[in-house]
Write a structure and sequence with these properties.
By secondary structure, the chain is α+β, with helices and mostly antiparallel strands. The strands form two sheets. Strands 1, 4, 5, 6, 7 and 8 form a six-stranded antiparallel β-sheet that branches. The protein has one domain. Strand 4 and strand 5 form a beta hairpin. The protein starts with 15 loop residues before the first helix and ends with a helix. It is 35% helix and 22% strand.
């Protein structure tokens, strides 16, 4: 293939985890930090946790396939907005998708009081760009492979600004619909 036809893949000489961290730091962190989000990089599980997961897993998972995805999080007066960048665990390609969720800090106590049981998780609402039924209609699927953003096939300079635009125009407004637990309960009904 002619070199001028190949997409520009930034940080291509790095492993996928490190490459995605550098790409996120370059394209997403500056803008999302201005909007009050704090970035937490992808983290590997410790050896003991990996051992426990492998003992319980139905399939063999290698240690480099077990990690906590990177995310952006901000607190808005008790409501916590979180945007998760989920990297595919297989190293052949660098693909990722996005999830965004709302948590409420006193939710666990509220749930326990209302339903007499602890919640499965403290997220009130969770959306994913993989879930067509829950994703907002305006969320576009440009620069994606089968179902996720593909930084192996498409130019980083095209994918990441487009992805940031999707976050700013679709995810954040959806998160901001919830300013209180009452707003979140309306979303659940």
């Amino acid at each position: 293939m002619f070199s001028f036809l190949k997409p520009k893949l930034e940080f291509q000489d790095r492993p996928n985890q490190e490459r995605l961290n550098k790409i996120v730091a370059k394209y997403l962190v500056p803008t999302l930090s201005e909007l009050g989000f704090e970035w937490t990089k992808e983290q590997a599980f410790d050896a003991r946790t990996i051992e426990l997961i492998q003992a319980e897993a139905a399939v063999t998972l290698l240690p480099d396939q077990l990690f906590v995805n990177q995310y952006f999080e901000r607190n808005r007066g008790g409501m916590v907005d979180k945007i998760v960048i989920s990297r595919d665990k297989y190293e052949a390609q660098l693909i990722f998708h996005c999830e965004w969720e709302i948590s409420y800090l006193p939710y666990e106590k509220w749930h326990l009081k209302k339903y007499s049981e602890e919640p499965y998780c403290c997220s009130i609402c969770v959306w994913s760009d993989l879930d067509e039924s829950k994703t907002i209609k305006k969320f576009q699927k440009k620069y994606q492979g089968y179902n996720a953003y593909d930084l192996s096939r498409f130019s980083t300079e095209k994918v990441m600004p487009f992805f940031l635009e999707q976050i700013i125009t679709n995810c954040i407004p959806q998160l901001q619909q919830c300013n209180s637990i009452s707003d979140a309960i309306v979303l659940l009904e």
